[in-house]
Structure formats: C-alpha cells, structure tokens
Amino acid sequence: MCGITGFLDYKKETSRETLQGMVASMSHRGPDDSGMEFIEEENCLLGFGQARLSIIDLSSAGHQPMHFKHFTIVFNGEIYNYKEIRILLEDKGHVFSTETDTEVILQSFEEWGVNCVERFIGMFAFVIYDSLVKKVYAYRDRAGVKPFYYYQKHDLFIFGSELKALMAHPKFDKEIDLTVLPNYFHYGYIAAPYTIFKNTQKMMPGHLLEVDISSQRLKQTKYWDLREYYLKPKLTLNYSDIKQEVKSLMQSAFEYRMVADVPVGVFLSGGYDSTTVTAMLQSKSGRALKTFTIGFEEGNNEVPFAKETANYLGTDHTEYICTTKEAQEIIPTLPFYYDEPFGDSSAIPTILVSKLAKKEVTVALSADGGDEIFCGYDSYFLLNKYLNQINNFPTFLGKAALSLSQFVKGNQILSANPKFYQLSSALGILGKEHHHKAALLFQAMAEKPAAYIQNIFAAKVDSIPSCFMIETSGFHNSSEIAMCIDFNSYLPNDILTKVDRATMSVSLEGREPLLDHRLAAYAAQIPLEFKTDGNSGKKILKDIVHDYIPKEMMDRPKAGFSLPIYSWLRGDLAYLIEEYLSKEALAASGLFDVEFLFGEVEKFKKRKLHYSPMIWYLLMFQMWYKKWM
Fold first, then answer.
1. Can you give the pLDDT at residue 297?
2. DSSP readout, 352-381?
3. How many whole angstroms separate alpha carbon 445 and alpha carbon 447?
4. Residue 497 neighbours by CB under 8 Å, 6+ apart
C-alpha cells in the first residue's frame, strides 16, 4: 500500500525538511500521495510520514497520517476483512467518516485496545500514537509480509518501511554491525531482529512494539506464533474432510486478497502454488482473471507451463520473454531497493515480472508460502534421510565420534573443508535429544563451515545466534520443526523481503494469499502424512489443484526462477567482478581478509569454487557498501 516513516525526537531537533526527505526516500512505494504530521509534547517531538499507493478508497479521505479523537496513525498494508470489522464497530455505536481500512484500525484500537490486531486478517505494519497515554504502538503482521525497521540511540527513535528512510535522518549512525556479517554470508540475508546497522532492528513478525515517550522505554510483545499451532494435537478428521476445510480456508483467503478499488492480477508460474490461487479464483469469477508470467532467453523458462494453465483456466494472460540484457540491467538497481545486503538473485526476475504486471494492474497476488506450510521443500526430506543415517550410527561409538567431531572443529584447515564440516556436524549431534538433533542438523544443512566464514574477515568476528534454531520441545516430528524454522526465518527474511521490495520498486502491491494466518494455523495441525509420503510434499495442496486441473497436466518437475548468474559473471558481467571484487575494492571497507577472498574469486573464475553463491553474496555486499556507505 505504501511506505511509512517517522521519529520520536527527545531533543526536538528534527526538522520538517528531514521528515520530508525520509518520506521522499520511499516515493517508489507510494507515488499517489504523501503526508506528514508533527506533534509536540512536553518532552518529545513526534513526526509521522507516509508515501501512499492508493488501493482502498482512492479519494483524499485516505490521506495519512490519519486522526481519530486522540489517536494518530500511519499504516502500510491492507486489512482485508475491514468491512466486517466496521459492521461490528457500527453495531457498538461507532461512526465512520471514510471508506478506508485505516480508519477501521483506528476505531478498532479505541474499542479493543492493543488486542485489536487479533481481529485483523491482512498484511500490515502500522504505528498508532495515543496522545492521552503518551505511548506509540507499532505492529507487524503475523507472517512478516510487510517490513518495519526501527532505530534507537541518543534520545532519538526512528522507524520506517525501509532502511533508506532511517538513513535519510542526519542523526542516524551508519555503523555496520559486524556480528551480523557471518550470518549474511551463511544465508544471503540478515534475519530479524537484526539489520546491517548497530542500534537498528527489524521488528519480528507477529510482534507489537510499545514506546513510552515519558520514560523512552521500549517493550516488545509477541501476539502470534505459528509454533503454538504445531504443538497442538493433530486434527482427527479424515482426509476428505480436512481437504474440504483447507479448500474453504483457501477460497476465503484468496477472495479476501482480491479486495481493492484498483485492478488486481496474479503472478502465474505454472507450478502448484500459483496454479492453486489462479484456479480457485477463476472458478468463482465471472470474468477472466489477469495473470502474468515472464520467461528468459537463458535459465529456467516456465512460460510454456504457465500458458498451458492459463489457457485451460481461461485467464486473461500476459507473458513476456525477457532478454539477457534486460535481466542484467536490473543488477545495478538492487542495492537501492534492497537497502541492506541481500543475496537472493531471484530478486531479478521478481522485479521483471512486477514491471510486466504494473502495466495493467496495481495489485498482484504472489503465491509464496506453499512449501513452508505444506511441506514442499526437498530439504525436509533430506533432513529425515540424514537423521535416519545418524540414528543408525552405532551407539557404542558415540564418544569416539564426539571426540572426532571436536578435533575437526578445532582444526582450522579441516573445519573449513566442506566434507569434514559435514562429517563433524553429523557426529557432533550424536546423543542429542531427537528434535533438538533435527534443528541442529537443519541448521548445519543451511550453513557453511564456521571456520570458512571466519576466513572471510580480517579479524575474528563474533556471530549473532543462528535464525535456524527454535525451541523444539513439543513438536510431533522433525519435518514440522524444519517447516516452522523456515516459516519464521527463510520466508520473511528472504522470500517476503524479495517480493516486497521487488513489487514496491514499481509501485505495485504484492499480496500473499497462501500466508493467511488462518490457513497457516490450520495447516500446522494437519497430520504430516496428509502433506507428504516421505519423498515428496504438498500432497493435500496438489490434490486440491487436481480438482481444477488434470493431474497429467501438472505432473512436471518443480522449477522456480533461476538465471545463469554465475555464467554471466564469468562472461558479460565479468566487469562487475573486476570493479567490485578486485583487491582494491575488497580492501575498501577494511572488513575482509583480502588475500583469502581474492583467492576465492580466482577459484570462481576457474570454476573451482565450492561455494559459488558466496561470490554473488560478496558482490551484493560490495555494491551495497559502495551505494550506501
């Protein structure tokens, strides 16, 4: 919907021009309108700003910041069930002056207080100031579809939808937090609550942040956690009944995501997730749904599959084959839109398909989350395979295995070797409780050797805790531990970050119908055997799709966006390696062991580098550093 930003300045030094700059930094998120508000209290100057992308109630009545009695709000996102909530409030005597979901949030907050969020079905990040109690309340949606950053230092609190809004404040200290860098080079992203900068955090999904302006104290509370639903007893209904309930929840979730006063379309890849959304919506629609697909001259090309699906369902389909040049031209723009280091190269095709869709619609549905809630990733099956192998290890050799693991970890050369790292990781978890063992192994599968990562840096760097660890007691099986970890880490920090920045880069609102919290919570309670046979996943989702699309039409390998990035970096884009990964460029920040990394770059050029993604992560960091530091 937009970008929001603001500050609490206890020294009262922030100017109107500064707030204007903070809002303007996110004009791509909201080109239709912008607004600012200054509120002066005895010990604090408050500023709120918004760049608006008009989706619901396109009139000036939707202008923000919005006021109601002693409340002020800036809001990014959508509350899809706002009409039903409005009726409840009207029955309680509330009177509305706009047709917006923003006003519904305000009056809900007055009626139900901080717990109003429990009634919302949507994606959101919003900030409410209550001038009576002198408190600011900030919320982020349950799955983390919408971003929220905040900074606190030197009597100053700043917030925003993107880091660039915070950086636009002259008192924001751009001091790199070295402890997050190992995790960035492990995963290709920096997981919440951390950011690339010190004193700066991403609010965790499903959380509420309260700021008491009298005491300057921050209090963060979790209001929703998918883990709680995994710990509940499994549903005892038969497969047919559960499948029907999933369909009902999906239909509700999908139709809610069509609520808008502007044109809406769907990203269609031809895979099961996007086909589920498209098929179910088209089956209930009296007109052709707008669908969009892009393909490439190189890499995976899903265009034929998507076209076949679109033709079968009768959608109004648009496809486009991007040239290699068009894809490569996106790369220099990535550091601006992803304003902290971000290593998922599928951001490139996501921006390109967003550009295609924006020509016809203002809202696009992106079918992310199916793998995380319906057990779709191969990593879940590999985890079980490796666990079985480890569990079959003779118990009488346990002490010897643990000693060997510790020896390998203590040896700098061995512990940096991928094969020895895998061996020591496997041996090191022998004797652990089964579910804890699963989390440790899943973490090891996602990470590179710690010793290898340390080799990257000029000095020893302590690392923040891994985002791949959760409290495992009470889970029913290891697959659900892995799914819950991915839902809480990989999904919001990689996938949803990618889609939010890509869609917003062209002022397109991206919506996530499979991440409706009602659907995710219900799916967590479905018996695992209804999702997977142990070798492949998404059984129940696939069976639902087969009610709309012939099974033989869908029976093809899982694809997904992928581009020949590494071939490009050895060919057409080799100049990026020379510019950003030369010895001089690597030395500029003072962070890295230049000789080690330059050696890795040379290995990459000769196709001898084991961790090829490291080169892309490093390039994205270097491009980010040059842009912002």
1. 79
2. HHHHHHHTT-SEEE----HHHHHT--HHHH
3. 6
4. 147, 189, 338, 342
Crossing angle of the two packed helices 517-524 and 239-256, in degrees rounded to 10: 160
The length of the chain, given as a count of residues? 629
What confidence score (pLDDT) does residue 154 get?
86
Q: Detail the DSSP E strand segments found in 434-586.
A: 509-511
Residue with tokens 């679109």: 310
Output the pLDDT for position 426: 67
CATH of 2-224, one of 3.60.20.10, 3.20.20.150, 2.30.30.100, 3.30.70.260: 3.60.20.10
| Domain 228-375+485-554: assigned CATH number | 3.40.50.620
DSSP 474: T
Q: Which two tokens stand for residue 112?
A: 């139900």
Catalytic residue among 2, 116, 322, 484: 2
Strands 135-140 and 122-130: antiparallel
How far apart (Å, rounded) are the C-alpha atoms in residues 491 and 498? Answer: 10
* DSSP symbols for 527-569: -GGGT--SSS--HHHHHHHTTTS-HHHH-S--------HHHHH
Domain assignments of the chain as residue spans, ordered by start: 2-224, 228-375+485-554, 565-628
Q: Which residue positions in the chain have pLDDT lower than 50?
A: none
CA separation for the pair 85, 69 (Å, rounded): 19
Enumerate residues 6+ apart whose C-beta is below 8 A from 396. Answer: none
Q: Is 467 a catalytic residue?
A: no
Tokens 């076949």 -> residue:
308
User: What CA–CA distance (Å, rounded) separates 44 from 605?
Assistant: 55
pTM for this model (two decimals): 0.94
Query: Edge-to-edge, what's the strand order for the sheet holding 45-52?
Result: 33-40, 45-52, 2-9, 156-160, 149-153, 200-202
The rounded distance, in Å, linking the Cα atoms of 103 and 562 is 42
Question: How many CA atoms lie less than 13 Å away from 235 in the CB half-sphere?
Answer: 21
Task: Look at residue 390 in the predicted model and tell me its pLDDT.
Answer: 82
